[in-house]
Amino acid sequence: MATLKSVCVYCGSGHGINPAYEAAASEFGRSLADEGIELVYGGGSVGLMGTLALSTLTAGGKVTGVIPQFLKDREVMLNDVTELITTGDMHERKRTMFERADAFVALPGGIGTLEEVVEMMTWSQLGQHEKPILLANVNRFWDPLIDLFEHMRQEAFLRPGLDVAFVVVDRVTDIVPRLREAVARRETLKGGQTEGDDATIERL
What we know:
- It contains 6 helices and 8 strands.
- By secondary structure, it is an alpha/beta fold.
- It has one domain: Rossmann fold.
- The longest helix is centred in the N-terminal third of the chain and has 16 residues.
- The relative contact order is 0.15.
- About 3% of the residues have low confidence.
């Protein structure tokens, strides 16, 4: 039976204007530590990235930071992580984070956060992995992206066989339970059961 041992989290190197974003990052970090789940993230000490990592570490959790050499100064890497991996470029960074994680979570963030989570969706769409992907829709931050996906579906660019599978939750407390459910369901589907196309986006 597969278990959820590590989660890759994408989030902003800034805090955003709504205090709810930082509060969510802090709460999720504590949750990961309490559940004994390793945090894999971009290695920075600033913004939501720093809040998330420090919260996890302070609560006794394990944190692996992955950062390319050229970003060490720009994102002010966090030296106190459990393990810090320096990569040669962004491609190696993303591949390493992918390999280290059992699932992916996107907290609020900017272009980099968007690019990283959408890449994982693309890899999933192309059959390169079956790991769960979850949007933490804090203060409904991801609603415009979800609406865009629905627009793509209506315009027949997302269609059966090319669906994008992800989970959406509004509360931090629901993230770990939903990821565990997704991991368990993946194992069930491997056993021969099927799932309809209308289950592509799951919202709680």
